[in-house]
Write a structure and sequence with these properties.
alpha/beta, Multidrug-efflux Transporter Regulator, Chain: A, Domain 2, Rossmann fold, two-stranded antiparallel ribbon, 13 helices
């Protein structure tokens, strides 16, 4: 699946590797293939894999151009269009994929230079090549850990941290469409009062949705009373409270203990501890969001 890539220009852009992205008219001109035929090959065979701008324009890469040239070569050999497309796509699948370490480095580099277009292109490649779980677990969240370490060492400024966090949060929330309509158990997800870091919580919601859960997402800085009302209304199988602040949860211990008396509660984030979870009567989520979602799905199946 391809994702929206916001570009500064509606007609041209570049990928994270500096490759030009073009609209279909320019692609047609370069290849000598009509736009109607290109659209047909894209629609029928998946030969072209464009990215979309925020304005809905399709943009095509050098890889798309290479696949069309190979398609023309196969047609010239006498293959039918469907056979030719199958040969081209099979060759593309055998091409070596960018490893997660390379993509993580590219993501860090583009975000470090405030390159939203490049960062989104890297994320597109990561999700397309490695799938959502692997991309989040091995690229996005390790990068965020490295970003947090750099922030703690005062190696980056607040502008860079905010830029990276906001871009990644927008991408995660873009994956949340329809997450309230799952057919499985329901989870209410909320940050503790005062907590504004939502990336782990949003990622958990996306990964649970991918495992058929329904998500009620309350987001940042949510009063415990509001979370309690949402739980009373939605009757979830689980409420997750996230906090990265060391002292972000203890002041709400009594309210959280009352909440845990009526619905299963899990604590997540660096501000949650075994001892606090035990006093509240809550489960502690200690894994990355993808692994935590996997474990919760297994727990729910075994109950």
């Amino acid at each position: 699946m391809r994702f929206v890539v916001p570009l500064s220009s509606p007609s041209l852009g570049v990928t994270s590797r500096g490759e030009e992205l073009v609209r279909i008219g320019e692609l047609s001109r370069r290849l000598g293939v009509g736009t109607d035929r290109l659209r047909a090959w894209e629609r029928r065979y998946g030969l072209l894999q464009p990215v979309r701008t925020a304005g809905g324009f399709r943009l095509y890469s050098r890889e798309d151009e290479q696949r069309v040239r190979e398609m023309q070569s196969q047609l010239a050999r006498g293959l039918a269009a469907a056979q030719a497309a199958a040969v081209v796509l099979a060759k593309a699948e055998r091409a070596p994929a960018a490893p997660v370490e390379e993509l993580r480095a590219q993501l860090a580099a583009t975000l470090a230079r405030f390159d939203a277009t490049g960062a989104n292109a890297v994320l597109d490649r990561a999700f397309s090549i490695h799938g959502r779980d692997t991309a989040l677990r091995e690229i996005v969240y390790p990068y965020l850990h490295e970003l947090g370490e750099a922030w703690a060492r005062a190696e980056i400024d607040v502008g860079q941290e905010h830029f990276a966090s906001n871009l990644l949060e927008s991408r995660l929330l873009a994956l949340s469409s329809g997450w309230d309509r799952g057919h499985g158990p329901r989870a209410v997800l909320a940050c503790a009062p005062g907590e504004r870091h939502t990336l782990g919580l949003a990622g958990l919601g996306v990964c649970l949705r991918d495992r058929s859960w329904s998500i009620t997402y309350l987001g940042a800085d949510t009063p415990v009373a509001m979370t309690t009302r949402a739980a009373e209304s939605r009757q979830p199988q689980l409420v997750v409270i996230s906090s990265t602040m060391p002292n972000g949860l203890p002041r709400w211990e009594d309210q959280l203990h009352m909440l845990a008396g009526s619905v299963p509660v899990a604590l997540a984030g660096a501000g949650a501890t075994d001892r606090l979870a035990e006093r509240i009567g809550a489960q502690l989520l200690v894994d990355d969001p993808v692994t935590a979602a996997e474990r919760l799905a297994v727990q729910n199946t075994s109950q």
